[in-house]
């Protein structure tokens, strides 16, 4: 059995970036990271653009101008203005080449075919210059940039429809157990609804990992070997829930050994999640998570999250940790470090009731985990403690 810092270090050093390229439609590339620089194919804006509703002017010394027309956003005509002439113009419309300022409409009075300014305009006022955001041939976004909604909108505004991004890992979710049935089916005596795979699937989706395949295997040694072999051969990361302990019908550990999976660690001195397995076969990483739901999810956030970040070559490897003042008390049993479900808010944290590893109700209310090291036996109201912020 190893310590939490040792386990975290092993995951960090054993996880390698995937560094594979894939092409995505821009509108479906949210959450991905650019595989290469994006070079702008156009100037943005592609013409001198009015920054507001008002009047485009060919400046002269007088405050009065002759109004000769109108340009709406999207109009393609290019009137030529002589000195002292103006056109009505709207936000986003193309400013004529002969205009050198735009005066906002609030500072203008109109009489017939002439306008009078309240104040003198200055050159290039309220005009967005050609290529103000980016010029043709310049780098629009650098390699490694995360594609946020704003980045997606920006790329589409440049006319880009496809992007080269770092491929995300193919992930397998394997659930084991004769007692498990799908929600919606009849719950006969002795059975429970299988929640771990959907829970972990939701956690993966929230982190924008969508290439996930679910496998279910009964407590049968031969079938466990067959299912795990398929999952390992076809995925970059395999997450198994249940069957990793040493009961008569826990076949996962034996099957992984039969498949010659390299064990990097098994069992961590922690609560919940002591029977956690981490190993590799070729380039595929395998986590065998505890079957208890709260333990499985805790291990996902502490260890699997790191592996996912490393696969995507990200620098921020762990979930953020902060210190906070406890507004509740907790008595820790045993000498194992604990991850406690909690609610964090504005520098304070409340440790919740119901910390059993099989219980999800408390976890459903949590947005954080309190880390209680083995040296801590009691947490009292007012104590400053370490808090892990969950990505929810």
TrEMBL record:
* Reactions that this protein is recorded to catalyse: adenylyl-molybdopterin + molybdate = Mo-molybdopterin + AMP + H(+)
Name the GO cellular-component terms.
Answer: cytosol
Instruction: Name any cofactors this protein relies on.
Output: Mg(2+)
Listed CDD domains: MoeA (cd00887)
* Record's protein name: Molybdopterin molybdenumtransferase
Keyword terms: Magnesium, Metal-binding, Molybdenum, Molybdenum cofactor biosynthesis, Transferase
| Pfam families (UniProt xref) | MoCF_biosynth, MoeA_C, MoeA_N
Q: What biological-process terms (Gene Ontology) are attached?
A: Mo-molybdopterin cofactor biosynthetic process
Q: Which SUPFAM superfamilies match?
A: MoeA C-terminal domain-like, MoeA N-terminal region -like, Molybdenum cofactor biosynthesis proteins
Cited Gene3D superfamilies: MoaB/Mog-like domain, MoeA, C-terminal, domain IV, Molybdopterin biosynthesis moea protein, domain 2, Molybdopterin biosynthesis moea protein, domain 3
Biological role stated in the UniProt entry: Catalyzes the insertion of molybdate into adenylated molybdopterin with the concomitant release of AMP.
